[in-house]
Amino acid sequence: MLKRKAMERLLFWKEHKTKQAMLVDGARQVGKTHLVREFGNTNYKHLVEINFIDNEDARDAVNAARNANDLFLAISAYADDELVKGETLIFLDEIQQCKEVATKVKFLVDRYGGYDFILSGSLLGVELKSIRSVPVGYLDSITMYPLDFEEYCWANGVPSTVFDELRDAVAERREINDAVHRRLTSLFHEYLIVGGMPAAVADFVAEHNVQSLRTYQQNIIARYREDISQYAESIGQSRIIRRIYDLIPSELNQQNKRFKVTSVGSGARYVRYQEEFLWLVDAGVALPVYNVDEPRYPLMLAERSNLFKLFLNDVGLLTCMCGMDVVRDLINDRTDINYGALYENVVAQELKAHGFDLYYFKNNAIGELDFVIEHPQGMVTPIEVKSGKTYNRHSALNRALATPNYGMKRGIVFAESNVKTGERVDYLPVYSVSLLERR
User: Fold this and answer.
1) Could you give the C-alpha distances from 254 to 3, 172, 259, 325, in angstroms and in order?
2) Topology adopted by domain 6-144
3) Greatest pairwise CA separation for the chain in angstroms
4) What is the C-alpha separation between 310 and 247, in angstroms, rounded?
5) Helix, coil or strand: residue 35
6) Cis omega (within 30 of 0) for bond into 376
7) Could you write out the three-class secondary structure of 257-321?
8) What are the tens digits of pLDDT across the range 309-364?
9) pTM attached to this predicted model
10) Residue ranges of the domains in the chain?
């Protein structure tokens, strides 16, 4: 059983909610249903689960409900366990097939507050755009992502106390125990292959079979492509979305990693295909990192939304799409290969999962900063990601830090190194990006 950080969020909701249902969002296959089932079975005497894909009759009954009594009657008619106030969690899954239930949640929590309600589904960012606004104050939400590196380490038997010590070491900028550093570096290299999709992780931890792992990953990729065909507005749009999705690995393999819209088709412009790009983002399967004119707070004011890098939501899927040669190179620990795209994909995943908006900076005078992140206190931190041994060469970072108008105090280089501190740059092991959180 995989330990997930999102479980703590659900426990907090259970203890502190007033009149709120919970919405668990996230891309397909990131573990939403499994998490809610585990939460329900562990913390309630009864778990009622209705899946609106598997149970079309229940979907029709819920859609036809006109008031709170009708809605609860429909749920009770298809309940697979007892409905007892204070003891039952009602889990409505795959709500993208029953979109109106999100607007009717007010009925449930107002009239039937003795029960707890969790809603979940995939492609909610795509499918819920067309419905009326969810009543304010009646729905809490959490977005799930693939297992981050810390969760992956837990799955591999690394105790949480190791990460407690790691947090202290990074916070104090002191070297990590060499044996721990080697172990975590080895697991990070493995994570580049496996990624964080729960089914893939569970299988690999149990079997350590790359062929079996790739079967899981290829099935997830195929399911994403099927979703595009099923949920895109038209056949023409689905073709463009699939084209963009399939281009991501090759675009990341370019030197500057920026997605060139002309790769979609000759003469293509972003304004023409903006909806197709945003479809992938809203579905949670792609992570855009937008360019900013200046790395100054607030970054969103300097955003150039037509210039971006596009990463996948899971580095394991990216490695799978790159082919077995890349997997073999990683297994053989070849140091003459540039793994920059994979490393940056992990950093993008971790930053996004931990609450950061994703930006990068590039201009002719300074050069390129792989990421720039902002903190609630108004501070901007530049980040460079290095996969090779020359991690201490970072001219763009030096020039950016030396520019007074930017007001950036220190930068971070994530690399294969242990913790080291320079004059204005902190060198941190790349796996420690999992410790960054927006506070």
Assistant:
1) 36, 36, 9, 18
2) Rossmann fold (3.40.50)
3) 67
4) 10
5) helix
6) no
7) CECCHHHCCCCCCHHHHHHHHHHHHHCCCEEEEEEECCCCCCHHHHEEEEEEEEEECCHHHHHHH
8) 999 999 999 999 999 999 999 999 886 677 899 999 999 999 999 999 999 999 99
9) 0.95
10) 6-144, 149-435
